[in-house]
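Deviation from plan, reported transparently: zinc ion complex.
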Amino acid sequence: MKIFCGGAGQEVGRSHFVIEQDGFRVGLDAGIKIIEDRGIEYPILQDNIKFLVLTHAHMDHSGYVPALDKSIPVYMTKPTLLASEHMWIDAIKVARKRNRPPDYTPRDIRRVLRDAEILDYGEWGASYGVRFKMLRAGHLLGASMVYLEMGGKRILYTGDFKYQDTELIRRAEPPPQVDILIIESTYWYQNHPDRRSQIQRIYEVVDRTIDMGGVALFPAFSLGRTQDLISILVDRYKNRVPIYVDGLGKKINLVYRSFRDELIDRGFLKKLDEIDEIDGMKRRSKILDQPGIIISSSGMLEGGPALYYVFNLNKNSSIILTGYQIRGSNGYRLINYNKIKMNDVELRVDLPVYHISISAHGDRGDIMEFIQRSSPEKIVLVHSDSSNIFQEELRTEHGYQVFSPTTGQWLDL
Ligand SMILES: [Zn+2]
Ligand SMILES: [Zn+2]
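Because the crystal trials were delayed, the predicted structure below was used instead.
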């Protein structure tokens, strides 16, 4: 059996993998990596993919799907399809705004929507003698791990997973025993700080900020993190200050609305009703004089209304980043150097910046537990900047047969 790493090999972004058995090829995810500084990085593709399974709607997993060969059937969960639609439409808008040719057309998106093969968690799909199913991955609404039986081997690809409940989403289900485990290892090097104490820290910063008359700005991924923050912030602050949501997150809220039974937070729909959605520059400029909370895309400040807010907040305001920041992104620059790069110019941001992570990924403990439970013969580490170091550790200290491919590499397993 061979596995091709077409992206997310010793990097985070543009996840894409191909599993090959006797010349027969199955694809997993097809994402892109967007760092405005460098442009878009695409997955490396192979011919002859019989079908593709998409784990979730984040662009680093889904962003290239509408541009794939039209004859490739794509399997995914229903929430992933509905959320992806918004992400893809937005990607075309962003490309046009930046005078970049879009990678696909609205028509391509409609075709994927029409032809997508929908699978529920636990439901078996079968194609060309390969059996596979989606398993709950925790990470966000609709996110799945993919379990495949192919060429006599049992394979689990985790996609992005979280092995703890969050406010909204139930945790990943325990992994089955497999022969080959392809596992995201974003946070292999650390355990997450206790989530409740992180949320407490967020409350402290917001309290302090609004007491001084400032605005607490949360640049946030529109899919997943925006909804986490709504769940965390609304009840505590709704009677004190207005809570605004701006950017693509507004559309994604609609998707969360339509899958209410999937959500742990039973009061979430009520919380959505408390939110004030912001559209257009005129309103944006009007909400910054009074204390308030703004949740706005994008999560790494690579675009979206969050960039406008950063440069127009009043001086008592704070910026709170809660997600993973890719090296080279504006979020990374802001945390480390208090700077943001726009149109090739670095601008200083003279406001307090906090990085209080409430991660949607598994941490070191979760990753180790996943490995032990699935007791794989072979492990493929993906979706991490430094998986090669983790590979060394797993091999020398734990005796596993481990691979840490770079993007573009074929593995012979
Ligand atoms: Zn993700
Ligand atoms: Zn990812």
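Residues 15, 58, 60-61, 160, 383 surround zinc ion (ligand 2) (CB under 6 Å). We consider this an acceptable substitute for the interim report.
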